[in-house]
Design goal:
Radius of gyration: 15 Å
Distance between the termini: 25 Å
Structural class: mainly beta
Number of strands: 11
Amino acid sequence: MLYQYKRPVVSVFSRQDYNGQVKEFEFSAPCHCCVDSALGVGDISYDEVIDSYRTACNIKILGPDSVCVLRNGAQSVKLIFEKNFRHVCTYFTEAGSFDLGILVHDLVCNFGYGRCRIAIRYSLDSEGTAFSENEIVVDIKEDDGNV
């Protein structure tokens, strides 16, 4: 069933464990969101502003075990998250670019009336050497005035 959200808000939580040093990040923003729960696909877009840098983000839910994240701004990247599969992506920064391997351990997409939740646990590596364990949770819901 195709569902177009009314006044959707995205909340993003991310956690990175790099050699025992844990960094967490959390924010909320208005977004555009359309999902088809019957097919298990969807499209979410929003702007992320960190330290006065604007990044356009787009999350494409490609199915129950596959999500693509596109970020365009000072740091641009196309990340492909596919359960039990390792993808290599190129991360573009102002200082140059580098390749990252992404191995997804767990990926869950849940759809409900007026709500969508994506949770991903994954490892990052560079040239096959793991360097961090990560988690991201994206929660979209309609703004009922209590967000």
